[in-house]
Design brief:
Blueprint (H helix, E strand, L loop, with lengths): L3 E4 L15 H12 L3 E5 L17 E4 L4 E4 L4 E4 L4 H13 L5 E5 L2 E4 L4 H10 L19 E4 L3 H10 L4 E7 L2 E6 L4 H12 L6 E5 L5 H6 L2 E4 L5 H6 L2 E2 L7 H8 L5
Parallel strand pairs: 1-2, 1-11, 2-3, 11-12, 12-13
Antiparallel strand pairs: 3-4, 4-5, 6-7, 6-8, 8-10, 9-10
Helix pairs in contact: 1-8
Length: 260
């Protein structure tokens, strides 16, 4: 019996085409909640960046890819910061080797070193504000939960090998990567919430579409990839449903008998 379901946001709940949650998804999740099943968000976003979800209510939030987990009552059950030494190394690399946009994500917001067309494109894609420009050196002593790199995969590999050696990167877009401490991902947050609520992993299900969802889909009892997911995500899943805009969430929940 499923007792907890974890949902990615962008490309899973929120359509990249309409920038809204399909009505079939809203109806399906509300039916799930009426059955007493707990529902959670698992996202690369900050808590304050979670919006436009059609009035849906959740029991908890796995944010910044597992680095910050908080209940709906604002009870923080897990937090993992990027080490200050890594942040210094990254800034030095960006200043001395190659210039690229990067952002530090703190609870109060995301801040970028400079804005280019790619930064604007990513913000527009997920319908969040373009991060304000800050001198990131001033934020090194703050609680940085995640780093965002606005780079392609090749440059990402160089940065991770030379500047962010204790971290790992995941991506859902060819020119954008999320960076967290190695071992921290959405599955980390799942375990924290299962422990918090006394739920077994055998009673879980998750939906996702991006590279930062792979660990999550492999971790739960039933991992479901959206039809619009990348091939690497689909391979990691137990089941591939329809596209987000073709009632993918609702159809999968019906397929597994969670709703009628």
């Amino acid at each position: 019996m499923t007792k907890a379901i974890f949902f990615d946001i962008d490309g899973t709940l929120l359509s990249f085409k309409t920038h809204s949650v399909p009505q079939s998804t809203i109806d399906a999740i509300n039916e799930v909640k009426r059955q007493g099943i707990k529902v959670f968000l698992a996202t690369g976003r900050l808590r304050k960046q979670i919006q436009n979800l059609g009035g849906l209510e959740f029991d908890g939030f796995i944010t910044v890819n597992g680095a910050y987990c908080v209940t709906t009552d604002h009870d923080v059950i897990f937090k993992k910061l990027i080490p200050k030494e890594e942040l210094k190394s990254l800034i030095e690399y960006q200043q001395n080797e190659v210039k690229f946009p990067l952002a530090f994500m703190l609870n109060e917001g995301s801040f970028v070193n400079y804005i280019d067309s790619n930064v604007e494109k990513i913000a527009n894609l997920v319908k969040v504000n373009v991060p304000p420009v800050r001198n990131l050196e001033e934020l090194i002593d703050e609680e940085v939960l995640q780093v965002n790199l606005y780079v392609d995969h090749a440059l990402e590999k160089r940065i991770m090998n030379e500047a962010l050696v204790s971290c790992h990167a995941s991506r859902w877009h060819p020119t954008f990567a999320d960076v967290n401490i190695k071992g921290i991902n959405k599955s980390t947050g799942i375990d924290k919430f299962l422990e918090h609520f006394g739920i077994q992993k055998s009673e879980t299900m998750a939906f996702g579409d991006g590279g930062n969802d792979i660990e999550m889909l492999r971790h739960v009892a039933i991992g479901i990839a959206m039809g619009n997911a990348g091939d690497d995500v689909k391979v990691a899943a137990d089941y591939v449903t329809d596209d987000i805009d073709d009632n993918g969430v609702a159809n999968a929940l019906r397929h597994f008998g969670v709703i009628k």
